[in-house]
Amino acid sequence: MRLRHIEVFHAVYSCGSVTRAAEMLNVSQPSVSKVLAHAEQQLGYRLFDRIKGKLVPTPEADQLFAHVDEVNESLERMRHVAENLRTAETGRIRIAATPAFGIDVLPLAVANYRQQHPSVFFSLETLHHGEICRALLESRIDLGLVFDPGLVPGIASEQLAVGRFFVLTPPDMPFKERDSLGMEDIADHPFISLDRRGPLGRLLSTHFKSRKVTLNTVAHAETYQVAKSLVAHGAGITVADEITARSSGHGDVNMRPLRPELTFSISAVHSETAPLSLLAKDFMVHLGRVVREFID
């Protein structure tokens, strides 16, 4: 199949009619019908049957679409890459970070950097880990700031620092003389669990299972900052990353290192196929200094 065949077949299959496919592709209906007929001629079998006035995909079309959909998605990603490469500007750094870094660390790093480099323009956004990787692969951003990046095809990482997990408790919890807390210390208290889909969530989940302690879970929070807020309002205890624990807001929350110590990497990530500009590399070094000072 040629690329035009793939595009038309995908549109007709997705829309369910030649008319709607033509509207989506911004071409005439006869043009779509002609390309579709040519694709069927080359393949040697029909892709659609007309039943009671409706186009119904054949079993062969159903099997083919799964592969065509992947190709179409790759083509869309390529179009995004081409457009983003066209609009990239000199003196501009596009960076995304997971939400915890967006509270203090990233704003602090950008503000300090601009004091020395006032002509640099920053584009900032907070995204989840998987979204940052996709944005890098599509050249929508230059740099990402994440926890424990792992191995992702096409993504390179540079470790900036190593952080620890902390137990966050309301001020009235009976732990005043404890320098650190283990899972056994908090097992009987209301516990706020966290999203297990991210790298830190999976790391914590593995740690909890290894300790063989049953927690009294009373709430689930998708972000660490929400969990910290729940702690501040007396809803229970949580275990959070060091960045969230040290970020501003809810200063009445007590924090103690988790025992035994559990660490994670704080890393900058970028595309393997899109070399960083000298400006972006310089900012990454600066960002590492800010992160290390923040958690010291």
Q: What would you note in describing this structure?
A:
The chain has 296 residues and is α/β, with parallel strands linked by helices. It has 3 domains: 3-87, Arc Repressor Mutant, subunit A (Orthogonal Bundle), CATH 1.10.10; 92-156 and 268-295, Periplasmic binding protein-like II (D-Maltodextrin-Binding Protein, domain 2, 3-Layer(aba) Sandwich); 161-264, 3-Layer(aba) Sandwich (D-Maltodextrin-Binding Protein, domain 2), CATH 3.40.190. Helices cover 46% and strands 24% of the residues. It has 11 helices and 12 strands. It has helices at 3-15, 18-25, 29-43, 59-87, 105-116, 129-137, 183-186, 199-211, 224-232, 242-246, 278-295; strands spanning 48-51, 54-57, 92-97, 121-126, 143-147, 155-169, 181-182, 190-194, 216-221, 238-241, 254-259, 263-271. Strands 3, 4, 5, 6, 7, 10, 11 and 12 form an 8-stranded mixed β-sheet that branches. The chain is elongated. The model has no long low-confidence stretch (mean pLDDT 89).
Topology:
Elements: H1 3-15, H2 18-25, H3 29-43, E1 48-51, E2 54-57, H4 59-87, E3 92-97, H5 105-116, E4 121-126, H6 129-137, E5 143-147, E6 155-169, E7 181-182, H7 183-186, E8 190-194, H8 199-211, E9 216-221, H9 224-232, E10 238-241, H10 242-246, E11 254-259, E12 263-271, H11 278-295
Parallel strand pairs: 3-4, 3-5, 7-11, 8-9
Antiparallel strand pairs: 1-2, 5-12, 6-10, 6-11, 6-12
